[in-house]
Each structure stands twice: as structure tokens, then as C-alpha cells.
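Per-record layout

source: Enterovirga rhinocerotis
name: Very-short-patch-repair endonuclease
length: 127
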Amino acid sequence: MSHRPIRLSTRRLARSGRGIPTRAEEMLWRALRDRRFSALKFRRQCPIGRYVADFVCFEARLIVELDGAPHDQPEQRAHDEARDRWFRDEGFRVLRFSNDLLLGGGADLVLAAILKTLAAHPSSDLC
């Protein structure tokens, strides 16, 4: 992973995102925060390079993104693909889930998918 300085505008964007989470973000954050999930430390709305990750676990090199309706638009999908490619190039795995899945009672499915990813591709940084 390269260590590039994070732009002030990216830091501000992350800070503002933490101040006004979506309902889906609040739900997932309740499960991930304070090492509640698999004893891993997750951070919310975290700047990484020129992007802001919804949730990141640096120990596991895992980013979890929650997507609302705007992510269904072709131009946004292309942006998300480029962003995910950049994260992967930096050594992260990226999981994307729709807000609708989480809000529709699929929180257990999301958490199970995260666990499955962690089990299938354990990070060498984990103890």
C-alpha cells in the first residue's frame, strides 16, 4: 500500500459523512463498531487516498460499501468500479451491498457475507 497524503477536502467529506449517516449506515455501524463484529476494529466514513470508504477494517484490509439508488446509474457504476479497482490496487478487498438489502431485513445476510469473505481470504495482518 502506498502512503499518500489525504487531501483536506477528502477529510472534510469524511467528517461530514460521519455527521449525517443514512439509516442503513446506522444499522450496519451498530453491528460493526467497538469491535463487536469478529473482534475487528472498523472505522466509518474513513478517508483512504482520494476516496472515503463507508466502513473499513485495516486489520483485515476490508472495505464495506453501502449503496443507495444513485449507485444504479451508469455513470455512478463506472465511478464505483474505478474506485473499487483503486482500493484493490492498494491491497483492500471491497464488498458492496444495497441499502435496500440492509433496510429490508437483510442485516444477517450482510454480516454473513462479511464473515465469509474474511474466512475465505484471511489477511496476513490478522493475529
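summary: The two ends are 19 Å apart (CA to CA). The chain has one domain: 21-116.
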